[in-house]
Amino acid sequence: MTEPKDLPKRKIIYDEDGKPCRSCNTLLDFQMATGKVSPVAAMSPMASAFNTAVTDFIPGSRTYRKVDPPDVTELGRSSWTFLHAMTAKYPEKPNLNQQGEMKDFLNIFSKVYPCHWCAMDFAKYIENHSPKVESRDELGQWMCEAHNHVNAKLGKPKFDCNFWKQRWKDGWE
Ligand code: FAD
């Protein structure tokens, strides 16, 4: 069976051990690279249902389903939620110790983030744009700009940083 010509070109990211990296690719790309789903099947309308289907509970449990490990999208969304929520709880006027801890945390985060090529870019961003940790407002703006840097890399529109507090701290009304 020949494959349709208009299948999207997929660029698969590999781990150091030469295997496809789950947390660096989308779930669909990862499944295509590991042969769990064919490119043709991936184009079908059932593909997204297939990929999000949770079929079973883990053995011995009626509570925990067999959920797959996170792909790059789920990992990213959860991580930004954590980073912005952490920023929203940062003190308005942090003492020097708290400022140092936040800098250390962001440096370490940029080294251990589980998508290694995302981590390398983020570490470079931190090197060139030192985290602004002297107040909550400054850190909020910095985090928003860091997120916008990734948005731009992925071809997404910028988020208006004037609204970071409504989005992550105060709500809209
Ligand atoms: P997300 O970008 O995850 O954003 C979640 C929500 O945050 C949005 O719905 C919006 O309400 C809000 N938001 C958006 N922008 C901002 C902002 N600037 N400030 C405040 N709030 C905002 N993915 C890759 O494919 N390649 C990468 O190199 C890569 N690098 C990453 C580096 C880091 C440090 C992190 C945490 C994630 C990275 N990701 C990367 C994942 C990527 O940024 C997204 O999380 C993922 O694509 C899912 O996007 P999303 O559209 O759900 O929204």
> For the terminal residues, how far apart are their CA atoms?
56 Å
Which architecture name of the largest domain does CATH use?
Up-down Bundle
Quaternary structure type: single chain
Number of domains: 2
- The secondary structure category is mainly alpha
Helix coverage percent: 40-55%
InterPro entries: ALR/ERV, ERV/ALR_sulphydryl_oxid_sf, ERV/ALR_sulphydryl_oxidase
Cofactor: FAD
Keywords: Disulfide bond, FAD, Flavoprotein, Mitochondrion, Oxidoreductase
GO molecular function: flavin adenine dinucleotide binding; flavin-dependent sulfhydryl oxidase activity
A few lines on this structure:
The chain is mainly alpha-helical and 173 residues long. It has 8 helices and no strands.
Topology:
Layout: H1 27-33, H2 39-42, H3 47-52, H4 72-89, H5 96-112, H6 116-128, H7 136-153, H8 164-170
Helix pairs in contact: 4-7, 4-8, 5-6
The structure holds flavin-adenine dinucleotide.
Keywords: Disulfide bond, FAD, Flavoprotein, Mitochondrion, Oxidoreductase
Pfam families: Evr1_Alr
Catalytic activity: 2 R'C(R)SH + O2 = R'C(R)S-S(R)CR' + H2O2
Describe the structure.
By secondary structure, the chain is mainly alpha-helical. The chain has 2 domains: 22-52, no CATH class; 72-170, Four Helix Bundle (Hemerythrin (Met), subunit A), CATH 1.20.120. Helix content is 52%, strand content 0%. It contains 8 helices and no strands. The longest helix is centred in the middle third of the chain and has 18 residues, at 72-89. It starts with 26 loop residues before the first helix and ends with a helix. Mean pLDDT is 88; it is low at 1-6. The structure holds flavin-adenine dinucleotide. Residues 72-73, 76-77, 79-80, 84, 113, 118, 121-122, 144, 147-148, 150-151, 153-154, 159, 164, 167 line the site of flavin-adenine dinucleotide. Flavin-adenine dinucleotide binds at residues 72-73, 76-77, 79-80, 84, 113, 118, 121-122, 144, 147-148, 150-151, 153-154, 159, 164, 167.
